[in-house]
């Protein structure tokens, strides 16, 4: 199955105010969708992630995306059209390196849409493919990864286990030297809770995560970033659970999505962080 061209799914461009021209315009997306399928569309959660990367002047975020201003090592998974990477590129300097990744057949779209340099590098990284991940690790060495960026990647059920595998690979040796080294940022729009909640139940087994909060610089209450949008949308910041570094990742995707042996036990495990956050957001 070619996941970039799913049957019976009609894909249309998105275009919020302020994003009407250039490589991510409606016209550019239409052409990219014809050539690359769903990878050519700018999916909705990318726009809220752009705000987190490049905050409006009257907003502050907790936690901030970057706590250091140089030497950052970033991998973006499932970069698609590259709109998030293009925004990130404006925040980087010559001491930083960002790997912008997707399926090998999508990399030409990223190369077309981004200004490549020693700082911005397009690389293939199919989810769950450890060989692809190891190639990036060899380029990173000896520097540890500092950030993983994901935008709107939680959708097709049969891709959830490979996605989780990649996140675990990228937060393990040789990418990190210590559990706290790498910060994982995920923007997410709810489309089908029944299909997507299993991912978050397993993600929470391996990662501790919480939503990004936003406050106006003029004062007022802190709110979850994404409150007020038409569809429930989140930006989560996560780090690997320290105890998970002693666990074995099951070779079988079914076991991965059922939490089998995740904690060195045959008893399936799960986590309810996402359900708790969802209930809190509805109050």
UniProtKB/TrEMBL annotation:
Residues 1-23 are annotated as: Disordered. GO terms for molecular function: S-adenosylmethionine-dependent methyltransferase activity. Pfam families: Methyltransf_16 (PF10294). The keyword Methyltransferase applies. Keywords: Methyltransferase, Transferase. GO terms for biological process: methylation. GO terms for cellular component: cytosol; protein-containing complex. This is Methyltransferase-domain-containing protein.
């Amino acid at each position: 199955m070619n996941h970039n061209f799913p049957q019976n799914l009609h894909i249309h461009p998105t275009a919020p105010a302020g994003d009407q021209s250039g490589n991510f315009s409606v016209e550019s997306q239409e052409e990219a969708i014809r050539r690359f399928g769903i990878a050519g569309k700018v999916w909705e959660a990318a726009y809220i992630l752009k705000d987190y990367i490049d905050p409006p002047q009257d907003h502050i975020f907790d936690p901030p995306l970057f706590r250091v201003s140089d030497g950052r090592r970033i991998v973006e998974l499932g970069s698609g059209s590259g709109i998030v990477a293009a925004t990130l590129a404006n925040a980087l300097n010559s001491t930083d390196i960002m790997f912008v990744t997707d399926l090998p057949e999508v990399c030409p779209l990223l190369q077309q849409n981004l200004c490549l340099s020693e700082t911005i590098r397009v690389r293939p990284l199919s989810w769950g493919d450890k060989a692809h991940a190891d190639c990036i690790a060899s380029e990173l060495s000896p520097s540890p990864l500092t950030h993983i960026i994901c935008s709107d990647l939680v959708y097709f059920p049969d891709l959830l286990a490979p996605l989780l595998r990649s996140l675990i690979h990228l937060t393990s040796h040789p990418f990190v030297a210590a559990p706290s080294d790498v910060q994982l940022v995920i923007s997410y729009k709810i489309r089908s809770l029944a299909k997507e909640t299993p991912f978050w139940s397993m993600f929470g087994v391996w990662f501790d995560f919480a939503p990004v909060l936003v406050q106006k610089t003029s004062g007022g209450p802190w709110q979850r970033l994404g409150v007020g949008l038409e569809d429930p949308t989140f930006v989560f910041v996560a780090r690997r659970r320290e105890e998970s570094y002693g666990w074995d990742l099951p070779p079988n995707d079914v076991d991965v999505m059922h939490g089998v042996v995740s904690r060195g036990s045959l008893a399936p495990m799960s986590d309810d962080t996402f359900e708790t956050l969802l209930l809190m957001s509805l109050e």
